[in-house]
Specification:
Elements (H helix, E strand, L loop, with lengths): L15 H13 L4 H15 L28 H8 L4
Helix pairs in contact: 1-2
Length: 87
């Protein structure tokens, strides 16, 4: 079963010449100009980092490892290293 996505009306300002070019392209393809704009937006999102990242795909940042004899990253040794004498 396909899910219908709600369309959001927006106001976008284009350079007139570019909009006229889009209108001509849409007419040649027997489509509406708005369809081409939506397609262009979809293509941009697909090609410019619209990746779904999950916490599972994240890699930890190396902090140089635990201090000798430290049990874990939450230990007082690690807190002293990160926060200094402020806490």
């Amino acid at each position: 079963m396909a899910v219908a996505l709600k369309m959001k009306p927006v106001t976008v300002y284009f350079q007139e010449l570019k909009y006229l070019m889009f209108q001509q392209m849409a007419k040649a393809q027997n489509r509406k100009t708005a369809e081409l704009v939506r397609d262009a937006m979809d293509e941009y999102l697909q090609n410019h980092g619209r990746t779904k990242k999950t916490l599972d795909s994240w890699q930890p940042v190396s902090l140089g490892g635990l201090k000798p004899n430290a049990k874990d990253w939450i230990s007082k040794d690690f807190q002293d290293e990160m926060l200094g004498s402020a806490f």
